[in-house]
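User: Can you write out an input/output pair for a complex, sequences first and structure second?

Assistant: Here is one pair. Inputs:
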Amino acid sequence: MNGIWLLIGLLVMAYTGSMLVGGRALRGYGLPSGVEYLLLGFVLGPHVLDLAPRQLILSFEPLLLAALGWLAAVVGVDYGVVGTRTTSRGTVALGVLLSLVVSAGVFASVYIAGGLIEGPHQTALLPLALILAICLSETTRHAIRWVVERHAAEGPVSTLLADVADTDDALPLLATAVAVALAPSALPWGIAVSVGVTLGAGVLLGVTTALLLGKQFRRDETWGLMMGAALLGIGLSTMLHLSPLALMFSFGVTLVAVSRHRTELRVMVGASERPVLLPVLLLAGALIDLRMSWQIGVLIAIAVAVRVLMRVASGWGLLVVSKPARALGPWIGLTTVSSGALALGIGVLFFATFPGEIGAAALTAAAASALVGELIGPTALRRGLARAGEIRLEAPVEPVEPAADIGADPTPNGAAPVPAPSVELPEGKMP
Amino acid sequence: MSGHAAAAPKGFMARVFQATALLVAVGLTYGATRVVDEVDSSVAVIAAVGLLLLAGTLLSELLEPIGLPHLSGYLLAGVVAGPHVLHLVDHHTVERLNPVNTLALALIALAGGAELKTDLLKRTARSLGYATLAQALIVLVVMTGVFIACARFVPFARELPFQTLFGLALLWGILSVSRSPSACLGILAQTRAKGPVAEFSLAFIMASDVVVVVMLACGMMIARPLILPGAELSMDAFAALGHEIIGSVALGTTLGLVLAVYIRLVGHQLLLVLLALGFGLTEALRYIHFDPLLTFLAAGFVVQNFSDQGEKLLTAVERTGGVVYVIFFATAGAHLDIPLLRDLWPVALALAGGRILATWGASKVGSRWAKDGPEVRKWGWSGLVSQAGLTLGLAVVIQRTFPEVGAGFAALAVATVAINESVGPILFKFALDRAGESEAVRHAKPNSDSSEPGSAGPDSAGPDSAAPESARPAAD
């Protein structure tokens, strides 16, 4: 397979992804976290069929980083908004706190276990523990949405879980700025300066782009400016060995905070998420490198297991802040075990940033976590929501959405923008 | 070539924001390239695309009030950011942006074909026929002569025997007949011009691609024995040319039909389909020695004229092209070899000036033969000055065929194209404004003091008379 064929393959994946958010297709098809595309990439990659050799896949790494940066910008633009509803500050704090608890648990366990197990990994134990903790801290919002939409869930628990899954993305994305500053290739600026430059550049680009968009929303101009600013940000951060994900997340958050066109931007940019996501998952699968020492393998297993445990423990926090959630009982945390695209994206970033098996461990851990999450999360969520009386298990519903064509005009005929929410949840009091 | 062409007028503060943003983008990139000693080239490509896209868009906006076309802004952004001025984008990175050019050329050809409506061709058939004849003959003869006359100032041609010089001059004459479809489409998309000059330029330039390809094949056949001692006159080139043209048109027709069916039955995600076609099909066409430009031109023509999906295709191409074209022209600007132009500028200027004069004269003759209207007679030549990728592509073909003199020949072609590429779009936009065909000028007319058609000056195309926001997004 040469580069062109791989590129065509990726475009086909993008096409498939875009059709999955189209009006005629059902979002509920496929697996909730999209892990099947990861597996497909793994099967096509060097470990199984070798249709896409490692060198070829690695030549796509810059493209992959650009796609990941764009996805981070999408998350930033959409941050704190679920469907048409804005999440409260309390929910944002809760989401960040839960992911912090989980990542702290993973970090501590890997750091302690890594110190006990003799091996070459001990020379880079701190960054290893940190990147595994960051990779495994989030709950994928896609899996929560998948279950909620497929079963037409309605109620405070679905709302809470969707909000938490949406808001817990901030911590891992921002934390990549710290982790990348610890990479061997990082410039000798120190962590604080690196993080400051990363976030500062994102904010600067976001403010600049927002000011350029001006008073009137012009679709084509917006695409040009956003793509230009995004690619510049991704390229510069990669050149300076900073985290493109942290920079683009801060760019996205700043852009919608400053621009008066936030609704149009969310619709416009949101439509590009799936088409970018599926090729990323495919490439991430092909990049997985299992050639690592047994010590690293053990640490990955420990990290994934501890993540599940920490998710269960963090679920108790949900019980404290939400009365309706108590109907789900002490295992409520299992409903948030799903992980997916974001974790894998962060894994790919670390794969590209940390050479050798440290970087490979991050991607492998993210993939293993996605697989484990796929087995536990959606089932637990479905049962939990049924127990809370928010869905009926026997009747999956096919949601019909308006077509989300990339490049489609979010304000057709100059009419007022009509957002295409992926989750139609009722207004409800946030915990 | 983005839709900002038709944006509502922008005030002083908007321009200040744009200038500030441009400085921020350039400053960030400048700082980053100075901090890091060695940059992975694949990483640099991402930053380069972002910078060229942002700087091209902003500079085109900033140059708009003085009446310069957006293309000039894109080109200038590339020149300034490129390897010879600020060195924010280096040579290697510019080379790595070739896939973007591939995609842009495919989209330009597709859009060009889709713009060629049969009723337009019927309307302009007489003009096209005579203009093609006049341009091909007069420009060829005049520029062959000019090249021979300038030979003593051309380093690589100074010592050549007359026979070899004549062969090279003939090829130069053919090169001079080539035009720039991308520049034409870019200016038309920005100005949304409607009228005889716009129609004539579009139809002529698109059709002239085929003429130039055939002329080059003939020219190579004749020039080979003149330039290469011992070489014989061979008709092989015609067999290859027949294969290329017929095959490309046939494949393009099939592609057009498939595209029309796709748009009708599915219609979604044309952007991704166009990306796949632009990258994948172009590569496949090169492999089987078909001409991608001709194939996509035929495909666009078929969709426009043999189905009712032409407008949808045009809109999709314009939306995709909005971003791609900015990068394409900015990359072309970064490609411009400034040191070479500095060395060869007197002779390049003479050749470019001679070509402009020859084009102007040929246009007058062709218009007289065809009995064209006054606008075409006066301004029909203005769109034919630009040269870009197609000309450089032909120069590379000549360079490969005649390696002994080809390098110098190609360098001179690059220098001359640099001048034509810079001057051509400005001339064409100026002419469309003066002919009263630009949308901004058409809109300004009812309020204008002058009631004479075509009397609107370039000033009236300023921001205050820009097209309304509701207008269809432009490709440029």
